[in-house]
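Hey all, quick one. A colleague (J.T.) asked me to put the uracil job into the tracker so the inputs and the structure tokens live in one place instead of scattered across chat threads. No bug as far as I know, just bookkeeping. Sequence used:
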Amino acid sequence: MPAPASIAVIDALTDWWEEMGVDVDHARVDALLKAAEQAETAAAPQVAPARSRGKKPTNWVEEARNLAAGCDTLEALKAAIESFEGSPLKPSAQKTVVFDGTPGASLMVIGEGPGAEEDRQGLPFVGKAGQLLDRMLGAIERTRETNAFITNVNYWRPPGNRNPEPEELEMCRPFVDRMIELSKPKLIVAAGGVPAKALLDTGGGIMRLRGSEHAFRTAGGFTVPLIPLLHPAYLLRRPQEKSRAWRDLLLVEKRLGELGG
Ligand code: URA
């Protein structure tokens, strides 16, 4: 059986086909991407959780909670996240990817977690999907440099770009909540199903969650409206879904106007 193509090769090919106007069979591409992801995950070094003999194992969620609670500025929180050793994803990642953009902006975008390019540069949403996100934000006159703040629900690249596991998200969550409390956005956009489901603590899919506003509350009691958006990586694979994303972006723009952002 031939080895599965890499994710990068499949992405490049589909992009090229789409640019050439070839009618892409998305079901087939998704199946190929799944096989590639599984192959890359299997090939990635398996990192065992750190253990020390005779010592009570660290409760990493509690540790994250304590660290986050002690931070009164975004810079202190960034340093705390970078110093955190609890995530099993950290040893195989090159960088800890925390946030980018304008601290205190009225719009906060929260994605799933770093991919290959983000892991190289140490910044969220700087690969192809990130470039599309920048264009989407630009369409509603938002830029990272002036009025948007960007982060993720997980700070370390999972091997083979698999989805983060629930327990990996759970130990990042106190940091995510504290970041929201310190940034005080007027509106959150959850980019994709993973952050939307994690933040809203629901099993519903992104297609059901998108298109409307939800109420989000941090552990510390800060409440803010949240609008889920289709992930830009998904939109790169399914450009025919861009009209849905556009409608959702218009809702974001309208709500920011109403909220005084
Ligand atoms: N996808 C995400 O969800 N976040 C990033 O930072 C990059 C890609």
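Adding what we noticed when we looked at it: The chain has a mean pLDDT of 89. The chain has two domains: 7-41, 60-258.
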